[in-house]
Design brief:
Elements lengths: L7 E6 L6 H10 L3 E5 L5 H18 L4 E5 L14 E3 L5 E5 L9 E3 L3 H6 L5 E4 L4 E8 L3 E8 L2 E3 L4 E2 L12 H13 L3 E4 L9 H7 L4 E6 L2 H5 L1 H7 L2 E5 H7 L5 H15 L3 E4 L14 H12 L4 E4 L1 H4 L4 H17 L3 H7 L8 H15 L4 E5 L4 H8 L6 E5 L2 H7 L5 E5 L6 H14 L8 E7 L8 E8 L9
Parallel strand pairs: 1-2, 1-16, 2-3, 3-12, 5-6, 12-13, 13-14, 14-15, 15-16, 17-18, 17-20, 18-19
Antiparallel strand pairs: 4-10, 5-9, 7-8, 7-11, 8-9, 20-21
């Protein structure tokens, strides 16, 4: 089952989409990777969902990626005696370490690290920015603030700190338990929330020990400021526009999305654009025109994947949302302006043999109008380099390792196939031709270009290009 688009679709599972039949329908509608949100999923349900995705994968015969999204630190105020209070702009309001119930003058903030880190002039955004406070006095145990905008606050509302660098790691105790559980089930990607600095990735890397790839969610100004360092230590990035839009001016988010997408492409790291892409389809069978435009911009930008959150997890139209995203992506990629926009964003390859070969493979494939680029890839790096080039022809990634194929299912333009390692060069060429033929990417008489590392099976050693004809039986002609 091949897709007729290059961008991938990531669909979140939830109450509206947790049974096996719906997961299969989501895949058939266009979902390539499934996201399990650990903020709302216990370990038993997570294992059940992984089992159902793997059952669909086995039935369809295509590798399917699974992303487990860790909750990250959730910073919240305490409770109020009346459940909620009304404030007025300009008044003083205190957040402190006193566990007593709050009132119109103060509330408990059960996070000593915030009380110690916020400095005068720093903003505190409560309830996704609906209430904005600015600290005017701090002493390590309380924050005296002025109300800047908004008038309501209620129990357990979230706190965002756009100006404050918190001295805490990105993993909470819950995250560590969740990480152990998801790694044991063999998920392919781990998404880390609220990354502030490159060091935040170190603990997750140490625990995962290469068992899953690490995706950094960029949702804080501190992460944007240190983007280059975070990209270097990440396997992929997610533009998490929801929290970015709370902690940074809304009008800055589109530009930041472009910066992150282009920086990730330059580095050859997959990038996902997420949050509110078809938000109105949670309750309506069709999206707004603005949402269609939003999805199309991410596709034009060359993002590897576009993501649905509540639309597929809890909405009334989960399958329709995926189908709509699929239709938008297909249409954008057929637009006559699309190749020019994608080509204009291309960056110079790294000065390595493998990168030079990936560049040459794209140029040869496009110049000679070949049917496909076939990349043998054990670790996945050859496939990632091929996708970085954003070729106009399809990429077929062949791997003997099912985990590699599942991981690469997130990658732009990449059709993954699990196959045994080739025994020699002739077998490698025959196998590439036959799979291209069988998967519907080429017919007898077409030509393909093959990239591989020789000796075969050596990770990261891409050093060979070969052009081959597909014969009448799907094997190599000559």
């Amino acid at each position: 089952m091949r897709r007729s688009r290059k961008v991938k679709i990531l669909a979140t599972l939830g109450p509206a989409s947790s049974d096996e039949a719906t997961i299969r329908k989501l895949f058939e509608a266009g979902a390539d990777v499934f996201r399990i949100n650990m903020s709302h999923t216990d370990h038993d349900l997570m294992r059940t969902l992984v089992g159902r995705i793997r059952a669909v994968e086995a039935a369809i015969g295509r590798p399917i990626g699974i992303l487990a999204d860790l909750q990250g630190p959730k910073l919240r105020v305490g409770k109020f005696a009346a459940g909620k209070v009304e404030l007025s702009v300009g008044q003083t309001f205190v957040l402190d370490d006193d566990p007593a119930l709050g009132d119109e003058k103060r509330v408990h903030l059960p996070h000593p690290e915030i009380l110690r880190s916020v400095e005068p002039g720093h903003r505190l955004l409560i309830d996704d920015g609906r209430l904005e406070l600015v600290a005017i006095e701090t002493n390590g145990r309380s924050l005296v603030c002025t109300v800047i905008s908004g008038t309501k606050i209620s129990d357990k509302k979230g706190v965002s700190l756009p100006d404050t660098d918190l001295p805490v790691g990105a993993l909470t105790e819950k995250d560590r338990r969740d990480l152990d559980a998801v790694l044991a089930t063999g998920v392919d990607w781990i998404a880390l929330s609220f990354i502030q600095r490159p060091e935040d990735l170190a603990e997750a890397r140490k625990i995962s020990r290469g068992r899953a790839a690490i995706m950094s969610k960029i949702e804080k100004p501190q992460a944007v400021a240190r983007l280059a360092e975070i990209i270097e230590l990440s396997d992929a990035l997610m533009v998490a526009r929801g929290d970015l839009g709370v902690e940074m001016p809304l009008e800055a988010v589109p530009g930041i999305q472009k910066q992150i997408t282009r920086a990730a492409r330059r580095a050859g790291k997959p990038v996902v654009v997420a949050t509110q892409m078809l938000e109105s389809m949670i309750t309506a069978p069709v999206p707004t025109r603005a949402e269609v435009s939003d999805v199309s911009i991410a596709v034009f930008e060359g993002a590897d994947a576009i993501m649905l959150s509540a639309e597929s997890a809890a909405g009334e139209y989960p399958v329709e949302s995926v189908a709509m995203m699929n239709r938008i992506a297909e249409r954008v990629e057929k637009d006559p302006t699309y190749p020019g926009i994608i080509n204009a964003q291309r960056s110079e390859p790294e000065a390595t043999g493998a990168d030079a070969i990936s560049l040459a493979a794209r140029q040869i494939a496009e110049t000679l109008r070949l049917s496909a680029i076939v990349s043998y890839t054990a670790s996945g790096t050859t496939g990632i380099r091929a996708a970085r080039e954003r070729p106009q022809v399809p990429i077929i990634a062949l791997s003997p390792i099912v985990a590699t194929a599942r991981r690469l299912s997130l990658l732009w333009g990449t059709h993954c196939v699990v196959t045994d390692d080739a025994s020699d060069l002739d077998d490698m060429v025959d196998r590439a031709c036959r799979i291209t033929f069988d998967e519907g990417f080429g017919k007898a008489g077409d030509r393909i270009i093959i990239t591989a590392g020789v000796p075969l099976g050596t990770p990261g050693s891409t050093n060979m290009l070969r052009i081959a004809y597909i014969g009448t039986d799907g094997m190599s002609g000559h």
